[in-house]
Design brief:
Radius of gyration: 22 Å
Helix content: 25-40%
Number of strands: 17
Family: Belongs to the glycosyl hydrolase 27 family.
Order of helices and strands: EEHHHEHEHEHEHHEHHEHEHHEEEEEEEE
Oligomer: single chain
InterPro entries: Aldolase_TIM, GH, Glyco_hydro_27, Glyco_hydro_27/36_CS, Glyco_hydro_b, Melibiase/NAGA_C
Keywords: Disulfide bond, Glycoprotein, Glycosidase, Hydrolase, Lipid metabolism, Lysosome, Signal
CATH superfamily of the largest domain: Aldolase class I
Pfam families: Melibiase_2, Melibiase_2_C
Organism: Phaedon cochleariae (Mustard beetle)
C-alpha cells in the first residue's frame, strides 16, 4: 500500500537575490504545461488522434490554459517534449517536425501559442539521439540553436540520452552559448546533473548555475505516489547540496506536476503542490486539461500556494524536522520586516496508522526569530472552492498546535494554510 501523506502549509509573512544568468530569464520558477508525463511518445494519430503528440494537442492545451484560468494563475509556457521530430534531418542538416503530426510546422505552432499570449517550449537532447530515438543536437549545436531562434522558441529542454556524462561539462555550456548568441531569450533547462549523478560523478553546480536556468537532479516523475514520495525524500536527504544552488534565474527541478492524472489521490495532490512550492520548483503541469476534475484544477490554480512558489526572493525551502512519520518543511519568503523573513511552513504526516497526529511547536522552534512575534492566519480548505480563515497573534514562545489528519480520497481534510506576518508591537 502506498503511503498517504497529509499536509498543512504555514505561511509566515514578515528573503536574498542571487545574480541572474546572462539571459535574465526565470527570475521566478517557470510555470506552464508540458506534454511528457501524461502523453509520453504517443505518435499514433491514426488510431488516437485526440491524444497523440501533434500540433492539435498543443493548440488545444494552449486554448484551455488561456480560457480556463490557468494563464491568469501564472502558467505561461506550452512545452513540447520528445517525439515531435522526423526521424532524419533535412538535406540542409536542419531539424524538421514530423510532417504528418505537425503539418504546419513548428514556426506556425509557435505563432499560434504566442497569439494566445503564451510562450513556446521545445525539447532536444545533447546526444546523437533523443531518448525516444529522434535526431539529437550533437554535431549541430549552432545550427539547432539558430533553428530554435528562427521558430521564436522561448524555452529549450535539453535531455542527456545517448551522450557521455563526462562530455556534458563542455557540451551543455556550449549549447547554452549558442542559444544566447542568437539574441532570442530562451529559458535553458538542462538534464546535465542527473546523468552525472547516475554515473557516479559529482556535478559542477557552479558551472551548472552559470549556464542553465533549470536543471534536473533526480528520476523522471511517474504517475504514482511512490514516485512523488521518492522525489521528496531525495530533496530532503540531499538538501545541503541542492538548496544553495537555487535562486532567481536558476532552479532545481523536481519534475512535473502530475495532479489530475490517475496516480494521486486528492490529498496526495495537495501535498505535491505544497511541497513543490516550498522547493521553489518549476510548476509544469502534465495533465489532460480537457477533462481534469474541478477539485484538481482548484489545486493547480491555488493562488496562495502559487504565490509561495513564485516568491521573488527565490530561496528554496528545507526539511527542518523529521520524526516518527511527521515532517516539517520551511521556506523563507517575502515580505521582510526589520530584516526578518516571512516563512512558508508545511506540516506533513507520513504515518500510515490511520489516526490523526498532533504537532505542538513554538514559532521559535520552527526557526522564527522576530522579537515582535507574528500574525498567524489559518486558512482551511472546506470545499473545493471555499476557504475559511482564522487570525491570531503569536509570540515566539507561544505554542502552535496543528492536527494533521490522515490522508484519504475526500477533500474535507488537510491543506490547512497558515499565513503569518510579523507584528509591529
Amino acid at each position: 500500500m502506498n503511503k498517504i501523506w497529509t499536509v498543512a502549509v504555514l505561511v509566515i509573512y514578515l528573503g536574498s537575490s542571487v545574480t541572474p544568468l546572462e539571459n535574465g530569464l526565470a527570475r521566478t520558477p517557470p510555470m506552464g504545461w508540458l506534454a511528457w508525463e501524461r502523453f509520453r511518445c504517443n505518435t499514433d494519430c491514426k488510431n488516437d488522434p485526440e491524444n497523440c503528440i501533434s500540433e492539435n494537442l498543443f493548440k488545444t492545451m494552449a486554448d484551455i490554459v488561456v480560457n480556463e484560468g490557468y494563464a491568469d494563475a501564472g502558467y505561461e509556457y506550452i512545452n513540447v517534449d520528445d517525439c515531435w521530430l522526423e526521424k532524419e534531418r533535412n538535406s540542409y542538416g536542419q531539424l524538421v517536425a514530423d510532417r504528418t503530426r505537425f503539418p504546419t510546422g513548428m514556426k506556425s505552432l509557435s505563432e499560434y501559442i504566442h497569439s494566445k499570449g503564451l510562450k513556446f517550449g521545445i525539447y532536444e537532447d545533447y546526444g546523437n539521439y533523443t531518448c525516444a530515438g529522434y535526431p539529437g543536437v550533437l554535431g549541430f549545436l549552432q545550427r539547432d540553436a539558430d533553428t530554435f531562434a528562427s521558430w521564436d522558441v522561448d524555452y529549450v529542454k535539453l535531455d542527456g540520452c545517448y551522450a557521455h556524462p563526462i562530455d556534458m561539462d563542455v557540451g551543455y555550456p556550449e549549447f547554452g552559448f549558442h542559444l544566447n548568441r542568437t539574441g532570442r531569450p530562451m529559458i535553458y533547462s538542462c538534464s546535465w546533473p542527473v546523468y552525472q549523478i547516475y554515473a557516479g560523478m559529482q556535478p559542477n553546480f557552479t558551472s551548472i548555475i552559470e549556464h542553465c536556468n533549470v536543471w534536473r537532479n533526480f528520476d523522471d516523475i511517474q504517475d504514482s505516489w511512490a514516485s512523488v514520495e521518492s522525489i521528496i525524500d531525495y530533496y530532503g536527504n540531499n538538501q545541503d547540496v541542492i538548496v544553495p544552488n537555487a535562486g532567481p534565474g536558476h532552479w532545481n527541478d523536481p519534475d512535473m506536476l502530475i495532479i489530475g492524472n490517475f496516480g494521486l489521490s486528492y490529498e496526495q495532490s495537495k501535498t505535491q503542490m505544497a511541497l513543490w512550492a516550498i522547493l521553489a520548483a518549476p510548476l509544469l503541469m502534465s495533465v489532460d486539461l480537457r477533462n481534469i476534475r474541478p477539485e484538481y484544477k482548484a489545486i493547480l490554480q491555488n493562488k496562495k500556494i502559487i504565490a509561495v512558489d513564485q516568491d521573488p526572493l527565490g530561496i528554496q525551502g528545507r526539511r527542518i524536522y523529521k520524526h516518527k512519520g511527521i515532517e516539517i518543511w520551511s521556506r523563507p519568503i517575502t515580505p521582510l520586516f526589520q530584516n526578518y523573513f516571512s516563512y512558508a511552513i508545511a506540516f506533513i504526516n507520513r504515518r500510515t496508522d490511520g489516526t490523526p497526529s498532533d504537532v505542538a511547536v513554538t514559532l521559535k522552534e520552527l526557526g522564527l526569530t522576530s522579537p515582535t512575534g507574528y500574525r498567524v492566519e489559518k486558512i482551511k480548505l472546506v470545499t473545493e472552492r471555499l476557504w475559511k480563515s482564522h487570525v491570531e497573534a503569536l509570540g515566539l514562545r507561544a505554542r502552535f498546535y496543528q492536527t494533521i489528519d490522515p490522508g484519504d480520497k475526500t477533500w474535507k481534510h488537510n491543506l490547512t494554510l497558515l499565513i503569518c506576518s510579523q507584528t509591529e508591537d
